[in-house]
Amino acid sequence: MRFSISKNQLITGISTVEKFVPSKSTVSILTGIKFAADTDSLRLSATDLEMGIEYNVKSESGELSIQEEGSFVISSKILSEISRRMPGDMVEFASKENTVFITSGDFNLKLPCFDAEDFPDISKIDLSETIVLKQRLFKEMIKQTIFARADETTSRPQLTGILIDYKNHVLNMVALDGFRVAWRYEEQLPEEANNPNDFRVIVPSSTMLEISRIFKDDEDADFKLYAASNRVEFKTENVLISSRVLEGDFIDYAKVMNVEPDTIVKVDTSDFQSAVERANIIAREGNRNNLVIFNISDDFIEVKADTELGSISDKVFCDVEGEKLTIAFNASFFIDALRTIALPKIQLNFSGSTGPCIITPEGVDNHKNFILPVKLGDNY
Amino acid sequence: MLPILHVDMNAFYASCHQAKDPSLKGKPILVAGDPKKRTGIILTASYEARRYGVKTAMPNWQAKQLCPHAIFIKPDYDLYVRTSQKVMEILGKFTPLVEVFSIDEAWLDVTGCEGLFGDSVTIAHKIQEAIRTELDLSCSIGVSSNKLLAKMASDLKKPNAITVLSADDVPRMLWPLPVDKLFGVGSRMAEHLNLMNIKTIGDLARVPQELLEGVFGLNGRYLHLWANGIDTSTVDPHAGEDAKSMGHSITLPKDIISYEEAETVLLSLSEQVGRRIRRENYMGRTVTITLRDNTFCTITRSATVSYTNSTEDIYNLAKKLLYSNWDGKTPLRLLGVSISQLVKEFEQKSLFDNDEKKRKLNKVIDQIKDKFGDGAIFRAKLLNDEELNRRKLGKSDNNAPTLRGIKRIK
């Protein structure tokens, strides 16, 4: 195998795939990156067996020229550090038996390599194409849900992932940890949808975070999503990401969100967010686990925090319909949710002091945050 | 200026008994755990008994050999707590800046009290006098410029002494002492230091701070500073008011050599810890277990979850820690469970019924135990260990009726 590639393209390729290389593995070949060249393209792959990636460079880009087809696997760590420090603009790779020779100007590097035959396949061809989506939109949906996932200490491991639930041409993305739910959905116009079947997968959040990192912000960059019962693949123009999925039940999110409100508040997003963030400065330092109290009156919410370190009170004026209410929450749950809302006004639906608060940006119904309160003791 | 005092009560437990019952005065008194159990060790020996070589933590039988006519007394913790409170009250008359360090030790900052009571040495004499006349107890007092040196000073001369130690005296008075005399250096740390050929406090003071930090981490920094007599902490009257952790441990009646037995003990300890934090309205998120094997090698291991105060959560985490840190064979002599990172209890509503059920279950178990005694209800798993069963069922916190004679279910 023999090819030369521009240093820039090489660095881009390596930095895209290297996050998928496990830092430690009992299978030593996995600590490497696979290079595979065919007549007109080069493919870089990496995987930790949970998730994997392929990055494609085409020779028509002018940054790659392939002299001889073939494949090899070399150490990710050494290659990553050295590629950034190479002197020339073009880098030449040539492999012979178990050795790879890397040349760039007067620079020469000789590295041992693994046999690419032993490297696991990233893509499984048996998946049927399901939906086509905008990368930018998908990134936004991830950002608006992923914070609500359960952390590693949960007794329900499936909740550390993000649910992608596609039904009736609607793509739902949901994360929840039992105390809160973040739900975002997007309708697919029939002509865009390639008549896919409904599907439901829980994708590990590490995969979702890598997708957010790699996907583009371009207005019209698309990707295709392939789903099967035990794995999922995301394919853009030059990248393919595959991942195992998590098994287990997910709560019926639409059902829990279906609560009749007793109190409806319409408030300026940033005013309310600032008030909660200020209150949390006291709340998070004390021994009360970020506890903030909302006193909802006729035309304002009083946001309060009270710990052994001090107390804070703040008023945010707003429109209130329905009953007055005193209710307490973990402030960080609100801050996490409010940070993902770009629209200037929000609506908060409350249903009593032990019921949830459902946050929706005003005039939008495809983005909901559900937060359960903390029950206040008798001394309030 | 040497404004910091450290007051250390002499042979406190034994002295409390002597003060209460003057007929015990001048006699060798040993306050000791139950002689029938393995926990039977000397908690405090009066100075009369110490002359015979009896030391704290010595097994009872050994103390008896050394001092056959000694009087053994069972500990009376109520008496010690009451007496301790009286001591602290007396200290509080001299300055509001009193930091209680343990049941029989406290620091005072007497800055600004000179006008009222005289200089710090005079105040030390007045304190000693007040404790002697009002409580019939003796104490040693260290007078210095910071808390560390005051504590080291009170240790230098006992009983009933006042020792002044200024920063200039450190090389002369502290450096020649063996390194384990330094505050914060326990026997294991001393062993470690001895291996590094650091035998005295002076040796330690001369080791560069970076080197100690390399070996002991943050503790290394303090070792360096303390060996040089440097301590910038202030006397904090509110220190220790907020509980930082709660835990229980037990020296086992016989060594444990199976997971099954160890689990039973952990469950019993987790239940005690859970009940205690629930009673005091706390929740915690870090669970720590202590394992001591038959060679007295002791390790502690912790793990963190989301806030909880349920027995189940504490036990499950403790069990997980046990399995990842014990081979199931090495004989265990002591087991401990504690929970830390405490916050005031809160009831975060959950989507899952289980969380709600667990909370209610623990609450109702607590209520039953409060009303009918510890043995009135317990987890069936605890039925499996007869030894533990006897211990649990035979004793009750509040003299409520307890179940006896429950046989192991075949």
Describe the structure.
The complex is a heterodimer of chains A (380) and B (410). In chain A, strands 14-11-12-13-26-25-24-18-22 form a 9-stranded antiparallel beta sheet. An 8-stranded antiparallel beta sheet of chain A has the order 6-2-3-4-17-16-15-10. A 5-stranded antiparallel beta sheet of chain A has the order 5-1-7-8-9. By secondary structure, chain A is an alpha+beta fold. In chain A, 39% of the residues are buried. Chain A is 18% helix and 43% strand. Chain B has 410 residues and is of the alpha+beta class. Helices cover 41% and strands 21% of the residues of chain B. Chain B has helices at 12-20, 47-50, 60-66, 77-92, 114-117, 120-135, 147-156, 170-174, 187-195, 201-206, 209-216, 218-227, 259-279, 311-325, 353-372, 386-394, and strands at 4-9, 29-32, 42-45, 71-73, 98-102, 105-109, 139-144, 162-165, 245-256, 282-293, 298-308, 332-340, 343-344, 347-348. In chain B, strands 5-6-1-7-8 form a 5-stranded mixed beta sheet. In chain B, strands 9, 10, 11, 12 and 13 form a 5-stranded antiparallel beta sheet that branches. Chain B has a 3-stranded mixed beta sheet with strand order 3-2-4. In chain B, helix 13 runs antiparallel to helix 14 (311-325). Strand 27 of chain A pairs antiparallel with strand 14 (347-348) of chain B.
What would a concise description of this structure say?
The complex is a heterodimer of chains A (380) and B (410). Chain A is of the alpha+beta class and 380 residues long. Chain A has helices at 7-17, 76-83, 135-143, 205-214, 253-257, 269-285, 331-338, and strands spanning 2-6, 32-37, 41-47, 51-58, 64-68, 70-75, 90-96, 99-104, 107-112, 129-134, 161-167, 170-176, 180-187, 199-204, 222-227, 231-235, 239-244, 263-268, 291-296, 300-307, 310-317, 319-322, 325-330, 345-350, 357-361, 367-371, 374-375.
